Amino acid sequence: MTLRVFVADDHPLWRDALAAYLERAGFTVVGTAADGPATVRRVTAVQPDVLLLDLNLPGLHGADVCAQVAGLGTKVLILSASGEERDVLAAMKAGALGYLVKSATSPEIVDAVAATARGEATFTPGLAGLVLGEYRKLASEPPADERPVPELTDREVEILRLVAMGLSSKEIAEQLVISHRTVQNHVQNTLGKLQLHNRVELTRFAIERGLDEVR
Questions:
Q1: What is the C-alpha to C-alpha distance for residues 35 and 16, in angstroms, rounded to an integer?
Q2: Residue 62 in this model has a pLDDT that exceeds 50
Q3: Which pTM value belongs to this model?
Q4: Confidence band of 134 (pLDDT split at 50, 70, 90)
Q5: In DSSP terms, which residues pair with 123 in a beta bridge?
Q6: Which long-range contacts (CB under 8 A, 24 or more apart) does 202-206 make?
């Protein structure tokens, strides 16, 4: 099925050009918005697969938009002019799955939208390390959830360890000499067993348990 994408940005030329490019790339753009409140209303109504969201929206900041649409099943990819640490971390804590700055090329944006729809975290180079560092800091605190961990297979643990180290699905596939689809299947199975929603939550879970440490 064609991926359904919603674009939220307050610059009309950028927003319209981006929506047109995504359509040419094979996605279905189900709506656009120029401010935060309209984004929340329309995304709630149409529930796209991916919300491509600018942070600096009039009326409601993008991080607040992200928090308000959490739970709809729509995955959020931030596309912002800002690469500031506070903006990146605020977006991720609000539930965004990935973060690109607007210097990204059009093909990079297309690839990131597709990856986001698959539940993969995608970042502009340099930002992934920032997010992983924050998760490591949070992992030093006592975990709030002490539920017993379901049993994972050796392969699932192996992939979970590589996810915690910040590797993409493609990089994991190359390292383990397996297919990209096989990695995705293992990630999805692990998410289901752990009752988590995306790779961001999976990464934090793994770091909390020390799986990012090199053995």
A1: 14
A2: yes
A3: 0.67
A4: low
A5: 99
A6: 202/160, 202/163, 203/121, 203/131, 203/132, 203/135, 203/163, 203/164, 203/166, 204/135, 204/138, 204/139, 206/160, 206/161, 206/163, 206/164
